[in-house]
Amino acid sequence: MKYMWEGRFKEKTEEDVINFTSSLAVDKKLALYDIEGSIGHTKMLIKCRIISRKDGDKVIAGLNKIKTDIEKGEFKFKSSDEDIHTAIERRLIEITGKAGERLHTARSRNDQIVLDERLYLKDVLRQILSLISNLQKKMVEKAEANFYSIMPAYTHMQQSQPVLLPHYLLSYVEMLERDKSRIKEAYKRLDILPAGVCACCGTSLPIDREYLAKILGFSGVSRNSLDTVASRDFLIESAFDCVLIMLNLSRFSEDIILWSTYEFGFVELPEKFCTGSSIMPQKKNPDVLELIRGKSASVIGMLTGLMALMKGLPLSYNRDMQEDKRLAFSIFEDTLYSLDILAKMTGGIRFRKDVMKEKISQFTLATDIAEYLVKKGVSFRESHRICGAIVRYCLEKNKKFSELSINEWKFFCTAISKDIKDILSFESSVKVKKSYGGTSPEIVRKELNRWKKILK
Ligand code: ARG
Questions:
Q1: Which of 83, 78, 76, 40 is nearest to 324 (CA)?
Q2: Is residue 156 annotated as a catalytic residue, yes or no?
Q3: Counting atoms of ligand 1 from 1, which one is nearest the CA of 325?
Q4: Which residue ranges of the chain lie beneath pLDDT 70?
Q5: Known catalytic residue at 167
Q6: What is the structure's pLDDT at 1?
Q7: Which domains does the chain have, with CATH numbers?
Q8: Which atom of ligand 1 is nearest to the CA of 82?
Q9: Whose CA is nearest to atom 12 of ligand 1?
Q10: What's the pTM value of the predicted model, to 2 decimals?
Q11: 3-state class of 247 per DSSP?
Q12: 3-class DSSP state of 443
């Protein structure tokens, strides 16, 4: 027998059709999950007395042998293996004969593929969670080691106000925590056993899906057979969560790329994580970060592909869905890879406190001056106008705030007194930002300690 479905056909299938429809090159990745599912399925068939213990044991031993061969890289795929399910079943029958022919009882490749995908994805999401925590830890370490660094915060890529570097780093820790919570949510919906719904309508054989869920480690069983083989929302949802992660990584990468330029000079990147130029000997390029930014574009495209794939498919299973794997696998792999390398690289970034501080313009204190006037009883709008005029004046006279005499200050507003000098430092600027969520060292220290506890 060459093809498991050949019984119904009189004509020999075209070679081209076999190649065109094969998914083996992509779904090979699911091999170990497929075997795990099949071993569970066999145990269930034995327990429900659908196959004999003798046959079942043979099947399980055969599957374990195939598993070892695959792990050692010794498994031989054949060009006639349509997909990973077929390859493993074909080999099983070669090894165990008639017993192996009983494995595909009370199941279809339609539920089998969803089972494989769910087992695979549960693994992936767990890895993602731990890699995100790793990255968060690295950021927290950097935040702690550079606690008193002050840098300009940016809006519109223009300097806005002084901010503590740890406050910046913890902003990413926050974003990544939300990413984790989304992944955990997706995991709950993923953790449902699809196996046992067979082709699309269930089976007349006395299977026990609850039992199968238990031995495969699922916390629930799907409730509708059509939905189970037809839906890929679990895949799209997880893929979307990964895309959001990649967007965060991409933005962080972009900041660090900019900061590593000669023009900024805020960071020194670890050489081990940079590459050189084939022509310009002096170059040390942030290619890893650029590729993370690049891959974040690819994953957006692939997510779009996944969604488009499902739009308009009639219920229930359609072969179109086979395309889901190459899209989804790429998204998950890019995310895993990027998280891992970025955490390693972040550990080696050197933040240059001196340069960061040196590059802050005194004009970033303008809002502090405006708030100073508010505290003296001036309305904020009025105070904004006054400070605007002071900035204008300084620009025209080529002066810094700290170079203005008390008479010059008073010229703009009589409410200003000598104590204006007290607020004209970057340290005092961050110190007074004590509002909830602000950048005062007091608050940032508390947040840092909170994260250290959470990420322990
Ligand atoms: N390779 C298929 C997929 O990924 C497995 C299910 C095939 N089912 C079928 N009836 N041809 O979707």
A1: 83
A2: yes
A3: 4
A4: 1-2
A5: no
A6: 58
A7: 6-105 (1.10.275.10), 110-358 (1.20.200.10), 362-454 (1.10.40.30)
A8: 1
A9: 322
A10: 0.95
A11: helix
A12: helix
